[in-house]
Amino acid sequence: ELFVMSYCPYGTQMQKGIMPAIDALGDKIDFDLKFVDYIMHGEEEAQENVRQYCINKEQKNKLSGYLSCFLKSGDSQACLKTAGIDEGKLAKCYGDSDKQFKVSELMKDTSSTYPPFMINSDDNEKYGVSGSPTLVINGAIINSARDSASLLKTICTAFNNTPEECQKELSNSTPAPGFGDGTTASASTAS
User: Fold this and answer.
1) Distance between CA atoms of 37 and 138, rounded to whole angstroms?
2) 3-state secondary structure string, the chain?
3) pLDDT of residue 189
4) Contact between residue 46 and residue 115 where contact means Cβ atoms under 8 Å apart
5) How far is CA 124 from the centre of its chain?
6) Does residue 67 or residue 188 have the better pLDDT?
7) Alpha carbon separation from 42 to 74, 108, 163, 174 (Å, rounded)
8) What contacts 186, CB < 8 A, 6 or more positions away?
9) Measuring CA to CA, how many Å separate 178 from each of 50, 72, 109, 134, 183?
10) Are the C-beta atoms of 49 and 39 separated by less than 8 Å?
11) Which residue from 15, 102, 88 is spatially nearest to 50, judged by alpha carbons?
């Protein structure tokens, strides 16, 4: 499970790093993209969190394609088309999730600095998630560098019987924070 904020520069950095590892491992792991239980980057982030939540929930096989595009461009509308997302299905999930988790309603709450985002709040509490990004493997918060090779290695250390996919060679360059391509010399670890 990877907990992020969709507009957090370090959350997007971690997503760019982990997606090649997730793609390499395929059905050998059960990956879920989840969200920190507060919004720091405004209405745009709340909307994108719900969008990514719904894609992960109902069109999971298209999540990687969507994120690959979105993390480069930041253009969700173009990326929905590029990834072949069923927008009718997405709209229904979005509306249902907005009502169920009171996303729009809570965004209007000015009583706190950061509005709550309740979609994965139970898991935030369960694991003690406090920021973006937070990586949880087999129920424990794990530290890892943010490049694809390190993330693959980190995930693979959790297997009792390591699959051959763990031998894949992935980039050891740390993706740059925020949107776009590029790398950074900083190899910060995510907790």
Assistant:
1) 20
2) CEEECCCCHHHHHHHHHHHHHHHHHHHHCCCCEEECCECCCHHHHHHHHHHHHHHHHHCHHHHHHHHHHHHHHCCHHHHHHHCCCCHHHHHHHHHHHHHHHCHHHHHCCCCCCCCECCCCHHHHHHHCCCCCCEEEECCEEECEECCHHHHHHHHHCCCCCCCHHHHCCCCCCEECCCCCCCEECCCCEEC
3) 52
4) yes
5) 14
6) 67
7) 15, 11, 41, 27
8) 174
9) 19, 9, 27, 16, 11
10) yes
11) 102
- Give the tens place of pLDDT for each residue, 38-89: 999 999 999 999 999 999 999 999 999 999 999 999 999 999 999 999 999 9
Q: How confident is the model at residue 180 (pLDDT cuts 50, 70, 90)?
A: very high
Q: Enter the pTM of the model.
A: 0.93
Whether the ω angle into residue 177 lies within 30 degrees of 0, i.e. cis, is no
Q: Which amino acid is at 44?
A: E
With beta carbons less than 8 A apart as the criterion, state whether 40 and 9 touch.
no
